[in-house]
Amino acid sequence: MVSMRVNDEMTEVAVDADTPLLWVLRDLLGMTGTKFGCGIAQCGACTVHLDGVAVRSCRLPVGEVGDRAVRTIEGVGSTPVGARVQQAWLDLDVIQCGYCQSGQIMAAAALLAANPEPDDADIDAAMAGNICRCGTYVRIRDGIKRAAQHG
Ligand code: FES
Ligand code: FES
């Protein structure tokens, strides 16, 4: 049994400690907004927050979460910066197919929480690991800048 805090609620799951967090979120907790892309920590589709820091949930054993608070795309809108990012994404129509976008939003929200006024180099560094097959990178950058301006 593993207990952890997900989107501000304590939860317990009957699962081996080495099960990746992504599987727990999607298959046991029904939070399917976090996506499986590569499964080897290379694409960013599975990005969630641990204590506000962006991590790849596909390679993180749930037993290593410990006391750190997990936040997913289902809960990021309840944080001020997450809400701003989501609104900026809507305002600028950032999304194309959408598959990568929960990971993009989680990475962007973590960036802005740590650095409220990122420049282009900061954005590139923070977002480099989040792949978008549809090539929405320009709109993602614009979305981050818009969310920053409205902070
Ligand atoms: S699915 Fe986790 S980084 Fe690609
Ligand atoms: S919007 Fe399609 S992969 Fe990014």
Automatic annotation (TrEMBL):
2Fe-2S ferredoxin-type domain mapped to chain residues: 1-76
CDD domains on file: fer2 (cd00207)
Domain of life: Bacteria
Keywords in alphabetical order: 2Fe-2S, Iron, Iron-sulfur, Metal-binding, Oxidoreductase
Protein's UniProt keywords contain Iron-sulfur: yes
InterPro entries documented for this protein: 2Fe-2S-bd (IPR002888), 2Fe-2S-bd_dom_sf (IPR036884), 2Fe-2S_ferredoxin-like_sf (IPR036010), 2Fe-2S_ferredoxin-type (IPR001041), 2Fe2S_fd_BS (IPR006058), Beta-grasp_dom_sf (IPR012675), Diverse_Oxidoreductases (IPR051452)
Gene3D superfamilies cross-referenced by the UniProt entry: 3.10.20.30, [2Fe-2S]-binding domain (1.10.150.120)
Single Gene Ontology MF annotation: metal ion binding
Protein name: (2Fe-2S)-binding protein
Organism annotation: Sphingomonas populi
